[in-house]
Amino acid sequence: MADAKPGLFTQLQAVFNRLTTSQKIVLGVVAALTLGGIWLVSTIAGAIRYGVLYSNLPMEDSGAIVEKLKEQKVPYQVTAGGGVIKVPEDRIGEVRISLAAQGLPQGGGVGFEIFDKSSLSTTDFVQNINYVRALEGELSRSIAQIREVAFAKVHLTLPKKSVFLEEQQPAKASVILKLRPGSSLAPSAVPAIMHLCAQSVEGLVPDNIAVIDVSGRLLSRPRGAVDSFDQNASEQMSYQKKMEESYAREVIDLLEPIIGTGKVRADVRLNLDFNKVETKEERVDPEGIAKVSEQSETTSSTGAGGSGGTPGVASNVASAGGGVATSGGGSGGAKAKSEKSVVNYEVSKTITHQIRPVGQIQSLSAAVVVDHAVETSEKDGKLVRTVRPRRPEELDKLRKLVQAALGFKADRGDRVEIENISFDTAPETEGEFYAKKQKSEDLIKTLIRYGVYLVAALLLFFLVIRPALRRVGEMFHGKVALGPSYEIPKIESEKLAQLQNMKDDAEIEKELLEQYKVPKEAKKMTIIKERVKEFAQSNPDGTASLVRSYLMEGGGGGAK
């Protein structure tokens, strides 16, 4: 087997030397294209696809994250001026978990982790500064958690405490917000941010907090600077809008099960009374007299015994006979009795104290639009849908339902209008159309890119690699003897070998005819004998095996 390699190399070299210059050039170009195609396919297949790890990062966080990625030997890309960091898509989750365990990203500021590396040599002044920095960082991170906020920065002014109350200065704060593209803060978000800061810092009140955005717009104003009328008007408009949306939603929820989902639109307008009215009424009924109280008092008395008579001088002056004159009567005492009754009456009256709630409905108007009706029928074994306008009686039924749902009152001027108009059945809006179009274009580009790779690989295989392999196979087709026990493929192809044998036979026949005068009919037998002789001399073992096989198959049968 050791002699096969040098023999094969020699045969290859012989074949290469026998090639013409053009064939050598073609072979070299084919080899170069094959190697280049293999390198191109391997490069494209092995290319790393990057995904966004973090975006909208401050420079401090970007630098810290890049250092950690270098330590972990994670490939990365930095774009958008350092605000976006990309890593391989298959490692995004792993890298985020690893960085979160190390406190990254910090959100543009340091938090209370600054005290994790405290030193005994740190002065009180440095500790106070670090405390303020930690408060600012923690507040910035908390505010940045709001969905509409992309970045937040908080500045605090904490005055020194004074022993005199009148000299104590209040704490102050300012907040800078960077909103996400296309986002806006809700009206309640700014007061919420102010109260968050006030409750997190000792001595800080919402009036001493200023909130602005990166465009320089003041989003908050002190309470003293807010016009109470504007504030009340804003609250009233917000309340009215919520009431109108609630009524419109009720109408839609009522009609959609009847008409169909998405086939009804409703708009409600309310006229609300925001005046605060307090009424106190006292009514007196002159005909309604009621006994309030009654008091009775009875007095009785009895006098002492003595001469009776008519009181006066005559009864008290002695008579001529030496006695007291009497008016006659008995000798009993005097009796006296008196009764007193007091009854109090009052006229009936009613006192009413009424406070009318704010925001009462003075009148309402509703506009409802419904789509055409769809009727389903069967025709020729197929389901057919027919669109038709709604009948007046159908609209009247719907109007009554809406009036009942809204609490319709004709005496206060309420109006409810229902119209049947065909809806635009376009399945998508302009924005959705362009979004789908962009998504389709991205998909097509991806398919084209991989399709080009596939076509290039197929062309490379069928036009370059396969013909080259076929050419080399034709060159190496056949076998050549290298020894008594084994053979290797010949260099000539089968066709070339046949042509060469025919050429050799013709030359031998010519030589025998010209030099040795051998008859033409004896040429073939002579040539066969010479070939057999040469084969027996060069391969005695094979000759013996062949003769033995012949005797066993044919000759042996004749001997028997």
What is the rounded Rg? 59 Å
Give the beta-strand count: 15
Overall 3D shape: elongated
Main pleated-sheet profile: 3 strands, antiparallel
* Amino-to-carboxy terminus distance: 43 Å
User: Taking strands numbered 1, 2, ... along the chain, how are they ordered across the largest sheet?
Assistant: 1-3-2
Notes on the structure:
This protein has 560 residues and is α+β, with helices and mostly antiparallel strands. It is 45% helix and 23% strand. It has helices at 4-18, 21-45, 59-72, 92-101, 124-144, 189-200, 228-259, 313-316, 392-406, 430-476, 494-514, 523-538, 540-559, and strands at residues 50-54, 77-79, 84-88, 149-157, 172-179, 209-213, 264-273, 277-302, 335-356, 360-370, 373-379, 382-388, 415-420, 480-481, 487-488. It has a three-stranded antiparallel beta sheet, with helices on one face. β11 (373-379) and β12 (382-388) form a beta hairpin. α2 runs antiparallel to α10 (430-476) and α12 packs across α13. The chain is elongated. The relative contact order is 0.06. Mean pLDDT is 75; it is low at 1-5, 318-331, 478-492 and 555-560.
Note the main attributes of this structure.
three-stranded antiparallel β-sheet, 560 residues, 13 helices, 45% helix, alpha+beta, disordered C terminus, elongated, 23% strand, 15 strands
SSE blueprint:
Blueprint: H1 4-18, H2 21-45, E1 50-54, H3 59-72, E2 77-79, E3 84-88, H4 92-101, H5 124-144, E4 149-157, E5 172-179, H6 189-200, E6 209-213, H7 228-259, E7 264-273, E8 277-302, H8 313-316, E9 335-356, E10 360-370, E11 373-379, E12 382-388, H9 392-406, E13 415-420, H10 430-476, E14 480-481, E15 487-488, H11 494-514, H12 523-538, H13 540-559
Parallel strand pairs: 5-6, 10-13
Antiparallel strand pairs: 1-3, 2-3, 4-5, 7-10, 8-9, 11-12, 14-15
Helix pairs in contact: 2-10, 7-9, 12-13
